[in-house]
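Re: [help] complex structure
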Amino acid sequence: MKKNRSSAGNGNNTEKILKRISFSRKAPLSMYFVLVVLYVIASVVVSKTAGSHETITVFGSKLNVYAFAGIFSAISNICIMFMVVYFGKLGFITALIGLVLQLPMMLYGIIAKGNISSLPGLFTGLFTISAIIVIHINNLRIDRFQARMRDQAVTDRLTGLPNRFACSELVNDLIKRQEKFAIVSMDINNFKSINDTMGRNAGNEVLIEVASRWKAIADSDDTTTLDFVTRQSGDEFSLIIRNFSSEQDILKTIKHYQLTLEKKVTVENCDLYLTACFGYTVFPQDADNSDNLFSCADAAVHELKSNNTGNRILRFTTDLLKSERSIEIERKIKAALVNDSLYFNLQPQFDINHNLRGFEALARMKDTDGSMISPGEFIPIAEKAGLIDKVDISVFRNSAKFFGELVRKTGADITLSVNVSVRHLMKNDFLDEIRNVIETSGVPADKLEIEITESIMIDSAEKALQCINDLKNMGLKIAIDDFGTGYSSLSYLINFPADMLKVDKSFIDKMNTSESSKQYVAAIISIGHIMNFSVISEGVEEAEQLDTLREIGCDYIQGFIWGRPLSPEAAEDLVINSMQPVKN
Ligand code: C2E
Ligand code: CA
Ligand code: CA
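Output below.
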């Protein structure tokens, strides 16, 4: 099947599309026809009235008919000027024909009939012809200048391909016309290493070669689709594919671009074998505006690059947005760390008689629009991206500073618990950081508790144990967080220098609906007590849960029933209120 070029005409596809999407001075064709009709009518009126000696009566006054010739001659000249200015070559030729055709009639009137009243008209006609020739020559110069400007604005300097501006102009145009198309993000693999090892000039040569191969395909009949290839930046290119009837057509076209790239490229006497990743998205199925379409194609290409499964072509699916969201959140965490805009809430912990024991500091982060990003979402991303130690220490430092001032101000005997990820715990300077926070905040070490999740400790027992012993020696308390969710083993617990077990919310949730869950929590509490640990239940929301926990001997409660995570100011109020003597 040959390309259906009906919408682009024959010849150089890229050039045709560029012309269509670039700035044009031309007015709508309907205006041209209106001007021609007006011009003909005005010219006829001029020829009928110019030599007339008759008079007509308008509102009681007598007027010479030939006076109308001046008015209509002005109208016909205005029409001519508009045609020449707004309709380029077409307008110029029409105007010239109209004016030149009038000349013989005027000359005939003067020479044959001796009618010298046509003399001014003759001179006006000659003058107008000279004027439109000057205007037209000037228009040609402006057009040439505009074409040069357009080329510069829409062309990538290095490769000569259309640039990202041209690409988004075409995409917006296609969306406006609701024409289906695919955007393919094409990213050369390992291009950076070519630049790094062979130098920028070699890198540029590679880009020029790749661009010329891809442009040759776009302008050839090798694919059955109508293609437009552009360079976005660096080694990123975009391909717009139109006139396809199925997804198979899109894939076949992409394969052409893939195959031509994979043929040997020789640069500075080195043979290079290149590959690229092709992520694509289809309008209107995947997204309905140009920003989202480009993001979708980029998400597909990022997925290919990060997973490196050997697969080189991938269509966007909504699943990929998750990884895009992760990248975005990672960026937000980094920005929040730089601006110090991570903050904390304090969730109160109480003993079973509702006396305040202290607070757990919980990290909080706001999006740019002011909405909250849940720690359940950003903490795992921070862990994966290796940012968790910075997040932990930022929450620890800020909450300890506040807590130190609060304790000095109120004299309250309370504890601050902070969460520490095992990745952070394993860092060599972890203990120094903790020492530094203790010194600067002035919080006594025995009023600080470090929460470490159970599963994590089992995974990396040896080093974690060493670190936890060091923390204990410094006087800090240790809590085992989310207890019950890991592979709790008694022998492991015996060796563990913890002070507190935190029973995970999932068991508290099930406690009153399942007898076995209640027995399980009761068993944890008993074992904890045998090992000399205190036990706190997390996520307590209902009075019934509280009654059961009291009954089975739980020591502490943390949950919405007695307190949600609070701002530092609200936590301060709670401390002050909790210290008021109870009135009888
Ligand atoms: P976590 O350490 O188990 O913290 C307790 C979570 O349970 C908190 O969620 C708290 O708001 C929630 N919670 C407490 N009581 C109730 C209740 O009665 N009902 C319900 N539905 N939820 C309750 P949050 O603040 O969303 O924190 C989620 C997790 O994020 C934390 O679980 C912790 O693993 C992690 N995290 C929070 N801050 C930090 C931090 O500074 N560093 C590290 N490494 N992890 C943190
Ligand atoms: Ca915790
Ligand atoms: Ca927990």
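The chain has three domains: 2-154, 164-320, 324-577.
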